[in-house]
Amino acid sequence: MKVTLLGSGEALGVPAPLCDCTYCETSQQRRRPGLAVETDHATVVLDVSPDVKEQLNATNTTDVDAFFVTHHHFDHAGGLHELNHAAMAFDEHMLNPDEFTADERPHEASFAVHLSPTACLHLSYSNSHLANRLDLELLSHGQAVQVGDLRVVPFPVDHAHPMFDTLGFAVYHDETKVVYAPDMGTFLPEREGGREYENADLLFAEGAALFRAEGHGSKADLRAALESANAEQTVLLNLSEHLQRMSTDEMRVVATNSGYELGQDFETYHV
Ligand SMILES: [Zn+2]
Ligand SMILES: [Zn+2]
Predict the structure, then answer these.
(1) 257-268 pLDDT per residue, tens
(2) Which of 36, 43, 105, 180 has the most CB within a 10 Å radius?
């Protein structure tokens, strides 16, 4: 599997909107969360951030079989508006597409968007035109979705639960496992499918609470959760020099001392 981190930031990204603080001015850009997982036969993208257009263009990703959304928050699902436009490439706005040469023809995007029932409900209320146009598929905890030779299993995590459902994803290719859980206070191993986060070859997980500011839960809970994940390699997400009031180097020291890596946009991994 080739894995590309599309975004390592939290809700605001870095630089934060309209901010000129020293951390925003001196840090590399952190886009909102996303992960691309590819084999020779399939590509899935986890989360559809408001930066998704730039993220896909920058990584030359034009063929995506399926997108998976962890939850309905803007930083994870705001890019569904961009996907709506991508899905419209050949609609009535484009005049006489039959007259185009092969080079002129836009790519005919064909993809499904997998999300939880609560995220789908939120989308239906807030943006019914997106819910009507996109090919939406509902996920259940622990129920695998096969995409080519990739198997994607959603699992529940704690993130303002139980007001709404937030998911992490385990992606399997043969015996290799990549796990993605960008927003979470802790894991929920007692819930159905809740142990899917364990024993990954490569884990991408929330790291915010390890630094100065509180994250989605306490430092102690996050430390215990990451420890229990027992991953070969752990990359921290949900990062912001702006919110933490720390330089990238200062954050990297904290991550490294904990045995983890600091996520960096467009870093690629081969597992
Ligand atoms: Zn700032
Ligand atoms: Zn969230």
Answers:
(1) 999 999 999 999
(2) 180
